[in-house]
Design goal:
single chain, alpha+beta, BirA Bifunctional Protein, domain 2, 2 domains, 43% helix, elongated, binds ligand 2U9
Length: 338
């Protein structure tokens, strides 16, 4: 028997015992991989020995080939077994971290912001009366915010002190009346719309003022609309919003875009509010004929009423909130109460 062949046979036998013992000594995936490369990799001991089979003596080749296959099987099996063992040990360790007796993680449920809830309540009452929601841009021009609303160039509201202007002369709308002007410019009467949205004023922020707040304005234009329609509609609205016992009071006031104009108070007692007997809650009036002229409506044919209210103010009254800044702080201790 030639020496080289004996050596190949010996080497195969050595491999058969050494490889399984090396595999079972591998303590983690990295070590296991190193051992796999050493024995089974492209330049590993087993493929190298397989290559030598071709040069073995013809009479030994069958026997050695059989042995080589046997060794290959043993090496592969011991690798598979160790791999399985390491993987299940890892899974067990991970399972050990799971404590089924711990309380579950409570999922935090979000809800609508109190200002959104208030807006939705107000909008729904008017939708039930046949009003439609209208929206418009927050960046406006002087025409839609002031001129079309009969607010002259020297009116204090147009002052830099009160309105936020952009470099190019445009401005942040100070009221959502701008939306109603836009709707009248593109639609003929009858008009029955409600315009909720953000408005901006150059105000010092305190417990009752914010430079950005929410408003809802409404507009009804048709033939023969009277102050009686205005009063009937808004009295119904406040009874729906604040309760059936609610009393309202219309005090004469002035707005550039309505004539006559009123401020509306409601009977605070209806909400169980002590202290003041009447609380101011909104403004309203009959649309000034000058406004109709600026949108191309015939003021002899059409009349209408308009009203406006601050959403923050209404939410504060409804929930007894004493600081407007609470609405904007996103503190979940405040928000989760609604
Ligand atoms: C058009 C014509 C007239 C809307 C009106 C008020 C009275 C009003 C204030 C309440 C508190 C604004 O949010 S607030 O600061 N609004 O008092 N708004 S009448 O009158 C209009 C609207 C559109 C074309």
């Amino acid at each position: 028997m030639p020496a080289a062949t004996t050596s190949l046979e010996e080497q195969l036998h050595a491999l058969k015992t050494q490889a399984p013992s090396d595999f079972s000594a591998a303590a983690d995936a990295d070590a296991l991989e190193a051992v796999r490369v050493k024995y089974l990799g492209r330049q590993g001991s087993l493929p190298e020995l397989m290559k030598l089979l071709g040069s073995a003596a013809a009479e030994d080749r069958g026997r050695l080939g059989k042995l080589a296959n046997e060794v290959k099987q043993v090496v592969q099996t011991s690798f598979d077994a160790q791999k399985q063992k390491l993987e299940s040990a890892k899974a067990e360790a991970a399972a050990g971290l799971f404590d089924a007796s711990l309380p579950g993680r409570r999922r935090k449920l979000g809800k609508l912001h109190p200002l959104t809830q208030t807006t939705e309540r107000i909008v729904t009452i008017f939708q039930n009366l046949g009003f439609t929601v209208a929206e418009g841009p927050e960046i406006e021009d002087e025409w839609h915010c002031f001129d079309a609303l009969n607010t002259p160039a020297d009116h204090p509201a147009r002052d830099l002190q009160d309105t936020l202007y952009l470099q190019d002369g445009r401005l942040l709308r100070t009221q959502t009346s701008t939306v109603q002007i836009r709707v009248m410019e593109t639609h003929k009467p009858p008009i029955r719309i409600i315009a909720p949205g953000r408005v901006f004023r150059r105000d010092e922020v305190d417990a009752t003022h914010s430079a950005c707040f929410h408003q809802i304005e409404g507009l009804y234009v048709a033939e023969n609309v009277s102050v009686a329609d205005l009063k009937g509609t808004l009295e119904h609205f406040f009874r729906e919003l604040l309760g059936p016992e609610t009393k309202t009071r219309f005090r004469p006031h002035f707005f550039p875009y309505t004539e006559p104009s009123f401020e509306i108070d409601f009977s605070a007692a209806a909400l169980g509010l002590k202290g003041k007997e009447w609380l101011e809650i909104a403004g309203c009036g009959m649309v000034d004929p000058a406004v109709f002229k600026s949108v191309g409506y015939d003021p002899e044919r059409y009349t209408g009423f308009a009203f406006g209210m601050g959403v923050e103010r209404i939410a504060m009254i409804l929930h007894g909130i004493d600081d407007i800044r609470l609405f904007y702080q996103n503190d979940s201790r405040f928000l989760q109460q609604f």
